[in-house]
Amino acid sequence: MVKPTDYSESGSPIYKYEDKERGWMPPNYGEEGWNEKIERHFETYIGKLDNVFHEIISDIVHIDVYHIKPTQERNYHTLFTTGMSYLPMNVPEGIEGYDYAELMICLPPEWPISQEAFADENHYWPVRWLKMLARLPHEYETWLGHGHTVPNGDPARPLSDRTKLNGVILLPPIMVHPDFLTLEMDSERTIRFYSIVPLYQEEMEFKLKYGCNDLTDKFDKYGINEIVRLNRKNVCRSSIIPFRRK
After folding, report:
1. Which residue, 143, 11, 26, 40, is CA-closest to 84?
2. Which residue has the higher pLDDT, 13 or 38?
3. How high does pLDDT run on average in the chain?
4. From its phi and psi, is residue 83 left (phi > 0), alpha (psi between -120 and 50) or beta?
5. What's the pLDDT at 14?
6. What is the per-residue DSSP string for 127-189?
7. What's the whole-model pTM score?
8. Helices 201-210 & 212-222 angle (0-180, nearest 10)
9. Which of 108, 115, 193, 228 is 20–30 Å from 173 (CA)?
10. Is the pLDDT assigned to residue 18 strictly greater than 80?
11. Distance in angstroms (rounded) separating the CA atoms of residues 200 and 149
């Protein structure tokens, strides 16, 4: 079990990971029918699958990234992973039932989505983060879930040349039917789906100090959802400390 190295002011555990010296591990490709069930789930609740970006070289788990194009009803791209849920995560005691997860990210309709476009890191970074985060819990024998934040390095650097956003938080998507949020694979295994939502430095610090709920309250106030907006409002730039009853 990976133990936290520290705790934030809000009481959330903080984990720090260092690169492991290990060799390549043969990837897990999932059980027969596992991928297809996830695909049907997304087609049922989000939209028709347009394309899949297959991983050529995999380590530990084979991560593919699927693409659903914008529609009139959902005017944004949806990218999602399969592969993170091939293995259970190493969840702490008391958090049973959160062992399996997959990730998604929503991009504005003008975002270029193609192999050619992904040659530019400014276009590719969402895919990089999907794959990196999907593999992280298996690489470090840990877990990822609701409210977990990950900075882009230490110190944190912008996610691309076109934004000051420099980290991410995992949150359940809000622009979906509630039944989308989980997928029961069998009587003992349920996949939970999380959106990657980019954060500014001040928002990351606010979350660590006051907790995830206070940050998402601010998101609700300013209409922040799971669609990535590179230059969106920083909800904590001039933040007011939340009132707390004694």
Report:
1. 143
2. 38
3. 92
4. left
5. 67
6. HHHHHHHHHHHHHTT----TT-EEESTTTT--SSTT----EEEEE--SSS-GGGGEEE-SSS-
7. 0.90
8. 130
9. 115
10. no
11. 11
